[in-house]
Amino acid sequence: MSGASLQARVEQALSGITNPRKGQDLIASGMVRDLTVEEQGSVVFTFVLTREDPGSLARQARKAVEGVAGVTGVKMSVVDAADGAGGAPPGRATARAAAPPAPPAPPIPDELPNLGKVLAISSGKGGVGKSTVSANLAAALALEGHRVGLMDADIYGPNIPRMFGVDTKPEVQGGKIQPLEAHGVKLMSLGFIVERDAPAIWRGPIIMKIITQFVRDVSWGELDYLLVDLPPGTGDAQLSLTQIVRLHGAVIVTTPQEMAVGDSLRGAKMFERVGVKVIGIVENMSYFVCPHCHTRSEVFLAGGGGRLADELGVPLLGQVPLQAGVADLADRGTPIVLGEPESPAGIALRNLARTVTAHAAALSPALPLTAPR
To answer: Helices then strands (H, E): number in the chain?
Structure first.
């Protein structure tokens, strides 16, 4: 089967999908760019989205190409039309450049009672174990009998699928994405949708579209808690989340070192600026307990989490020890609270879940803001 004939059938499959905003198919509307068929049937193309287009078009495009006989793999890069990939289709020139549109007003966040307490799990710095805390906190809350959802909003490093041992693509039923479930926790992650080696080279509008879909277009059902695992820092993902849903609070994860504490302070101040209450601080990798002599050692400088909590005037919710085996269990899809519940880290994380539950009980959703103050 020649590459040319396969490419024609791929283009035909993409032509069968209509962009409802433009009333044209994906090829005619210029949403598919740089389409090539490599050796052995691998298809590579760029998919151009604007913030007005439904994000489901990207999933439809991938599924259509994967369904073409002879296609052995699909590598699709989703880009924002604002980056210059959009505009007129190849071969058509515009008469003159249009005046740039006025920036849209920030959306008003929704209060979604069916999601229960919506809590952001954040850190100012990468590598502090934020996703590990998120996964174990979710699993521990489920162990306590709560209905829990975990939304992996770490666009650049979606690790929640691996930590829960699931990687199936979610189904769409009745226009709603069906979350996957493991260890009693409902899960949604970009890692379920994109290829493992696909880089997320996206700007704000695409990030906001993904987070909007994960909040509003996923069939979460009735939850007691929705935890949102955010990427490190204070960028588009954090701001987008605060503009989409009225958060009840944020949990800041740090390690004891001053470098991590300083970055976490900036992250906490960002939430305060947009009117979201910081519930408290979790100090991860706080100490080490020898498994043989049970002696406690401070591996890093001690007390950073406590100093950060004091500076912010919030409680230190918990100190989670550095423990051998946590990463190995995570790689096998088992949170430590399930795999080794009586270990020092397992006990600390289960206690953390109870502490978060107590502090979140009286929380009200943040008041809507039109823009950061």
So the answer is: 11, 17
The pLDDT value recorded for residue 185 is: 97
Instruction: List beta partners, residue 142.
Output: none
3-state helix, strand, coil in the chain (%, to 5): 35, 20, 45
Contacts of 199 (CB under 8 A, 6+ apart): none
For the entire predicted model, the pTM comes to 0.70
CA separation for the pair 191, 151 (Å, rounded): 11
Burial 188-203 (b: 16+ CB within 10 A, else e): bbbbbbbeeeeebebe
How far is CA 133 from each of CA 150, 226, 239, rounded to the nearest angstrom? 12, 14, 21
Q: What one-character-per-residue DSSP string does 48-89 give?
A: EE-TTS-THHHHHHHHHHHTSTT--EEEEEEEEGGGTT-SSP
* H or E stretch covering 306: helix 304-312
Residue 242 to residue 274: CA distance in whole angstroms: 7
210-254 pLDDT, tens digit per residue, is: 888 888 899 999 999 999 998 876 666 777 787 778 889 999 999
How far is 283 from 322, CA to CA, in rounded Å? Answer: 10
CA-to-CA separations, 64 to 45, 56, 77, 176, 194, in angstroms, rounded: 13, 12, 15, 19, 15
d(CA 239, CA 227): 16
d(CA 290, CA 288): 6
Say if CB 265 and CB 311 are below 8 A apart: yes
Contact 130, 123 (CB under 8 A): yes
Exposure string of 150-182, with b = 16+ CB inside 10 Å and e = fewer, is bbbbbbbbbbbbbbbebeeebeeeeeebbbbeb
Provide the pairing of β-strand 288-289 with 296-297.
antiparallel
All residues at 6 or more sequence positions from 362 whose CB lies less than 8 Å from its CB, including other chains = none
Residue 191 and residue 163 in contact, taking contact as beta carbons nearer than 8 Å? no
CA distances from 159 to 37, 118, 131, 162 (A): 30, 20, 7, 6
Positive or negative: CA dihedral 47, 210, 230, 106: positive
Nearest to 35 by CA among 69, 67, 9, 63: 9
* Cα–Cα distances in angstroms (integers) from residue 323 to residues 18, 153, 270, in the given order: 52, 26, 31
